[in-house]
Structure formats: structure tokens, C-alpha cells
Amino acid sequence: MQAGKGGKKAVTQQETDEKFMKTAICEAADALEAGEFPVGCVIAGPKGVVCTGERRSSRGPAANEIDHAEIVALKKLYDSGLSGTRCELTLYSTMEPCLMCFGAALISGIRRIVYAYEDVMGGGTACSMESLPPLYKNAVIRIVPYVLREESLELFYRFFSNPQNIYLQETLLAEYTLCRK
């Protein structure tokens, strides 16, 4: 860090990303504690955290595939009335957003996504923007992967190691996660 005006140390983008990702990891830990899939999300702007979300309704044999942490946070963003400042906002997620969440972020005007752990089964951030329909492909987005990856991986490892958690067990993601430790 370099000293800024008045002798204060300037905060780097990496430090800011790690700070907000730690908050997302806390959201994911809360989800895990509740028996949910451990995905946490934070939407933050220049003044700090705007809203948070954690995965909901992933327990049991009939998981709800709509209540992803990113969708929960985006709903809170719109409910807060701060969606007009969205171009300055960054979405932080403990797992790479799926195609649904990535599309929702693009439409919502989020211009930066930071994630911790890659979703080898359903990650949407590697989509070719040129091949997307006009509604999506005109978006300008920056993707920053692997921020605090190991901390996030630990939560997913704990989830998949618990036989009581049936969500996404015996999938490519579970296998990939369990062999990473």
C-alpha cells in the first residue's frame, strides 16, 4: 500500500475485493449453518455494502432453483431503491455465478463480478459475450475470479462431506470439490 493524501494508506482494489468477499463468505457460512448450499453474495459500491444474499431453499429432495444468493441480493438491490447506481456496483459471490445469475447481473447493469470458487458444472461467466442475444451482449462486464478461493472451497468441502446434505451430491461439482482437499 502507498501513502495517500494526509499520510493515509491507500486501499488497493485487491484489499477491497477481499474485504467484501469475506462478507460474502460470512453469508455463505450462515447458509451452511442453516443446512443450505453455502453460497453468499454481496453487492457493494463506493460507499460500502449495499445488500447481501445467501442461498435459500436448497434443502430437501425438491430444491428451489430460483433462490440463488445472487438473485436474493439483486432483489434486495431493487427493493432498496439504489438500483440507479448499479453501474458503480460490484457483485461478490463465493461461487462463480451460474448462467441465470450471470444473466440477471448483466441485465441489472452490474459491471463487475468477483467470485471465489469456480463452478465447474454450471458457471456462466465464461460465456462468449459476442454469442449472447442483444439484451446481454451489449453489457460491459469485468470478471475477477478466485478471490479468497480457499476459504470458499472449505465451505463447499464441508457441505459435500456431510451426507445429510443431498443437494448436488453425486454431481461433477461435488466430485471436483471433494478431490480439491
Write up what this structure looks like.
It is built from 6 helices and 5 strands, in the order H-E-E-H-E-H-E-H-E-H-H. Helix 1 runs parallel beside helix 5. It starts with 12 loop residues before the first helix and ends with a helix. The model has no long low-confidence stretch (mean pLDDT 91).
Question: Topology, please?
Answer:
Elements (H helix, E strand, L loop, with lengths): L12 H21 L6 E6 L2 E7 L14 H12 L9 E6 L3 H10 L3 E6 L16 H4 L4 E3 L4 H13 L10 H7 L3
Parallel strand pairs: 3-4, 4-5
Antiparallel strand pairs: 1-2, 1-3
Helix pairs in contact: 1-5
Q: Going across the major beta sheet, what is the strand order?
A: 2-1-3-4-5
Q: Overall pLDDT, averaged? A: 91
- Provide a count of the helices: 6
Radius of gyration: 17 Å
Distance between the termini: 32 Å
Extract low-pLDDT stretches: none
Number of strand segments? 5
In N-to-C order, the SSE pattern is HEEHEHEHEHH
Shape summary = globular
Task: Looking at this protein, list some descriptive labels.
single chain, 181 residues, five-stranded mixed sheet, globular
